[in-house]
Write a structure and sequence with these properties.
Layout (H helix, E strand, L loop, with lengths): L16 E3 L5 E3 L11 E5 L8 H10 L4 E5 L6 H11 L2 E8 L10 H20 L4 E4 L11 H22 L3 E3 L13 H11 L4 E6 H7 L3 H8 L3 E6 L15 H9 L5 E4 L7 H18 L3
Parallel strand pairs: 3-4, 3-10, 4-5, 5-6, 6-7, 7-8, 8-9, 9-10
Antiparallel strand pairs: 1-2
Helix pairs in contact: 1-2, 3-4, 4-5, 5-7, 7-8
Bound molecules: magnesium ion.
């Protein structure tokens, strides 16, 4: 296939996008249901401050609407609920991870344990009105299975877990990683096909600009492939510091988010060069500028 002229089918309207590898694009797509929005969030560890409240107050001042919560929210719900209520910062996603690959283990007992752990986090996430629980099925060294076998376990087990997530008012969000971190699930289109096969309103995907740099030929194409399944975005530069601290560009990906009418959060997951008190607000402004330049 010629990667410079790859066709994408979007919905029933069969609109086509011609995408150049990481460059300009010419798009003819149906208008999204609603105009896409840039709603900034950050992992709490990226924000300086002694307490949750102090971090969230700074985020608010710097134009962040939400905070991405760590995986250990079970039993800590009140702490996060109070901080969000007191500061007016919303919870975005919960960054949970792979639970050491337990959900795709060859052992039914291990899988059951993993499912129970995920259900507990989903329940807390729902209580906190979080947009979803981020789940990376497996990192290198966590499974001996082949990719097709892992995929089958996911398609067999995620529909029930997704139904539970939806019942809790949240989602499971599959995160594709780059090849240095996993042998399985590296592109948004691949994650979207798992959602399609699960056919559950509680199973969604996300894109992480850091991983996407290594795995996607086009940020725009990747988000279009994810379409309505995309419910979270991680923001980081090419070397995984703050957006704007190296030459990683976000405009092409932001075009993709605008074309799909993206409504969820874009959240910092990265290191920082220099003083975070100065650099984080600078990065937020850089992202707003890139969003403004993302014309569609
Ligand atoms: Mg990530």
């Amino acid at each position: 296939m010629n990667l410079d002229r790859r066709g994408f089918l979007v919905g029933s309207l069969a609109a086509t996008v011609a995408v150049t590898a990481r460059g300009t694009s010419a798009a003819t797509l149906p208008d999204p249901k609603q105009p896409g929005v840039l709603r900034l969030s950050s992992q709490l560890s990226r924000i300086p401050g002694e307490s949750l409240e102090e971090k969230m107050e700074k985020m608010k001042k710097w134009g962040f609407e939400a905070a991405e919560l760590p995986g250990g929210i079970v039993g800590e719900e009140k702490k996060y609920e109070d901080a969000c209520r007191n500061t007016g910062v919303k919870p975005s996603a919960v960054c949970w991870g792979s639970d050491k690959g337990s959900l795709v283990s060859t052992s039914p007992e291990e899988r059951k344990k993993g499912q129970d752990s995920l259900k507990a986090v989903l329940k807390s996430a729902g209580q906190l009105t979080s947009t979803g629980v981020i789940f990376a099925p497996v990192f290198h060294g966590e499974s001996e299975l082949a990719g097709r076998e892992i995929r089958k376990i996911l398609v067999d087990t995620l529909p029930e877990l997704g139904a539970y997530a939806a019942e809790c008012g949240t989602r499971i969000i599959l995160e594709p990683l780059n090849r240095k971190e996993t042998f399985f699930l590296r592109q948004l289109a691949d994650a979207a096909s798992i959602c399609r096969d699960c056919n559950s309103p509680g199973v969604a995907i996300m894109g992480d600009f850091y991983h996407m740099f290594f795995e996607e030929t086009s940020d725009l194409g990747a988000f279009i492939s994810g379409g309505d399944y995309v419910h979270h975005v991680h923001l980081a530069s090419r070397i995984r510091v703050l957006p704007g601290q190296d030459n990683r560009q976000f405009i092409d990906g932001f075009r993709g988010l605008k074309l799909i009418g993206y409504q969820d959060f874009c959240s910092l997951e990265c290191g920082c060069r220099g003083d975070a008190e100065v650099e984080v607000p600078k990065s937020a402004q850089f992202l707003r500028d890139q969003w403004a330049q993302a014309t569609v």
